[in-house]
Each structure stands twice: as structure tokens, then as C-alpha cells.
Amino acid sequence: MIYDLELDKVVKKIGKSKLVCIQLPDGLKSEADNIVDYLEEKTNAKVIIWAGNCYGACDIPSGLRLIGVEKLFCFGHNRFNKVEGW
Amino acid sequence: MEVMFLDTPYKKEFKLNKKTLDYLKKYKKVGVYSSVQFISKLNNVLKQLKENKVEYCTSKPKRANKEFQILGCDVFHGSLNLKKDVDCFLYIGDGEFHPLALVLLQKDSKKFKEVLTYNPIGNKFEVLTQKNVIRILKKYKGSLLKFLNSNNIGVLVTVKPGQQQFKQSLKLEKMYDKKFYYFVDNDMNFNNLENFNFIDCWVNTTCPRIGFDDAVNFRSMVNLNDALNAKEILSKESILNKK
């Protein structure tokens, strides 16, 4: 793996959460199983995988709350400063 | 729901290869940009530029979170917030998505500046020019003309908070004597849009790259910013209007 997935940060952030979701850009989707296995071993959370796009920090899935997701971990992007009207 | 972003930084140190440095000799001032994975490893590159007497500058674009960072949506004139004039751009990173933003943002400029790319993963140097987007720009200019001459306009709005521009899109109704129909979705699916055959031209208010890269194979579509300024864009001397 040529990228640092920063999983220690994720473990710390998960804390006592019970259900979290990971969102990965296409280039990291093949690592999803390793990430889930690691996080479920290190925490008590159920970790689910967003199956859709991950084009940027602007591309956060809506509706995850409906199934009780407490935290979303978006890999490969950082905070996006939205501009009205671009 | 809390969201945590992870930069997933590239682990290895790298330097520009000889081909990149030799090509850079053509230029005095370069605007340096990168994607978030590579920003923490740019020190060696910046040192090389100094050693080779290439002046560099950068900026924190409007939507980005860090200096040197370019996003795929930085495709509008002024998106970069770059205060100094540069002779060319140098992009450090992999893929074409981000550096093509540096090409597309020049569509309303008079003179084109080359976008040099160095990919540390493949140790590969490339030069992007207007030729890389010629199909997109030809189609896009046609779409702008179509927009001005159409009556039934479909406005695409997403519910994704980061891309949602519904309020801004309502400005269209005040500016133009046309009928605007608003369509809302999560991800835009062009196959679904084909069924709305009463629409003459679409205005995209979601990710602006959909209006450029994806719409090239679709019916007429323009981005919101350009729809709001269509007459001005089509009337000035620019790279777009040379096509």
C-alpha cells in the first residue's frame, strides 16, 4: 500500500460508536475488506461500506442516518469549502 | 452524522525527474498544484525548483482546504485565487482528473498556459494542452448557443449537500424569458434524463465536471455559472471562442 490509510485515527474516532460507514474512492475500493476487518477487530463497531461514488468531499452520501450510521469516514479527500454558485 | 475526512497521504519521498526539470527550463514562473495525497511530500520538489531557478507560487483555491491543493471542481476563471501571474502550471499527482481542471479553468482566458504534470507513482511527465479538451470545448460552446436559443430548459439539482445549488439556480428564472423545469436526484443518471424529451437544453448545477467531462457524450448541457453568464462568455475573445 503506497498510501497511509491513517487507520489509527479512524479507530480513535470510532470510539464507542456502534455503526459506522467507510467511503472509498475507486482506487481504494479493493482495500475495503482489509479496512473493515482491521476496524472491526480494533473496535466494537459494525463497519459498513458505501458502495457508490466518492468523487470528493462534496460527494457525501445522504440517507445514512436512516439506518443508524453514526459516523462516516471519507478516505482520500479533505474538508470542502462549499461556494454558493461555485 | 459526523464525517471524518482522511487525506490518505502518499508514503514515499519523491523528486521531479530529469525530463520534467528540462521541460521547466522553458518557463520562469510556475504555479504549483497537487492533490491532497501528495501535498505533504512536496518539499523536495520545491527545493528542486529553487535550485533550478524556477520561481514558483501557489494558492489555496476557494473550495480547497490547503495551499497547493487543487480540486476537480476548480474549473472556473478565478477559482484558484492565484495572486501572481504564472507562465505555466505544474501539477504533482496521479491521474488526469485534477490537472484537467487547470486546463478547463482557462477556457475563458485569452492565452493558454500549459499544464505540466508529474506523476510520482509512475515517475511520469506529461504536458496537457488545449488539445486534451478540444472535444469538450467544441461541444460546450455549441451547448451555450443552444441554451440561449432554447425555450424549455431542464435544471439539474442534486440533494448532496456539498453540491446542492438550488437557490442559486433559481436566478436563471429572473435572467431569462424561458421555461425552466427543475429536476432533482442524488446522482445524475443521463439515461434517466433521456426520457424527458421535452427539454431542449440542460443546466447542470451539481458537480461542474459533469457539465464538461460527462456531458460531452450527452445532449446539450451547460454549467450553472456559464448559463448565468452565457452572453458575456460567448462574446469575448477567449480559448473557448477560438474553437
Report a brief summary of the structure.
The complex is a heterodimer of chains A (86) and B (243). With 86 residues, chain A is of the alpha/beta class.
What this model shows, in words?
Chain A has 86 residues and is of the alpha/beta class. Chain A has a domain at 16-74: Diphthamide synthesis DPH1/DPH2 domain 1 (Rossmann fold, 3-Layer(aba) Sandwich). In chain A, 22% of the residues lie in helices and 16% in strands. Chain A has a three-stranded parallel sheet, covered by helices on one side. In chain A, helix 2 links the parallel strand 1 (19-23) and strand 2. Chain A is globular. The mean pLDDT of chain A is 95. Chain B has 243 residues and is an alpha/beta fold. Chain B has two domains: 18-128, Rossmann fold (3-Layer(aba) Sandwich); 135-242, Diphthamide synthesis DPH1/DPH2 domain 3 (Rossmann fold), CATH 3.40.50. In chain B, the strands form two sheets. Chain B has a five-stranded mixed sheet, with helices on both faces. In chain B, strands 8-7-9-10 form a four-stranded parallel sheet. In chain B, helix 2 links the parallel strand 2 and strand 3 (55-57). The longest helix of chain B is centred in the middle third of the chain and has 15 residues, at 134-148. The termini of chain B are far apart. The model of chain B has no long low-confidence stretch (mean pLDDT 95). The A-B interface holds A 1-6, 9-10, 13, 28, 52-53, 55-62, 64-65, 69-86 and B 1-12, 36-37, 62-66, 69, 71-73, 76, 79, 121, 159-163, 165, 167-168, 171, 186-187, 207-208, 223-225, 228.
What descriptors fit this protein?
A: 86 residues, alpha/beta, Rossmann fold, 2 helices, globular, B: 243 residues, 5-stranded mixed β-sheet, 4-stranded parallel β-sheet, 10 strands
Proportion of beta-strand residues of chain B: 15-25%
The main β sheet of chain B shows up as: 5 strands, mixed
Report the span from N to C terminus of chain A.
35 Å
Residue share in helices of chain A? Answer: 10-25%
Question: CATH homologous superfamily of the domain at 16-74 in chain A?
Answer: Diphthamide synthesis DPH1/DPH2 domain 1
Straight-line N-to-C gap of chain B: 46 Å
The greatest inter-chain interface is formed by: A-B, 40 and 43 residues
Beta content of chain A = 15-25%
Give the strand order of the largest sheet of chain B, numbering strands 1, 2, ... along the chain: 3-2-4-5-6
Number of strands of chain A: 3
* CATH architectural label of the largest domain in chain B: 3-Layer(aba) Sandwich
Task: Provide mean pLDDT of chain A, rounded.
Answer: 95
The name of the CATH topology of the domain at 16-74 in chain A is Rossmann fold
Count of separate structural domains of chain B: 2
DSSP summary: helix tally of chain A = 2
Spans of chain B with pLDDT under 50 lasting ≥5 residues?
none
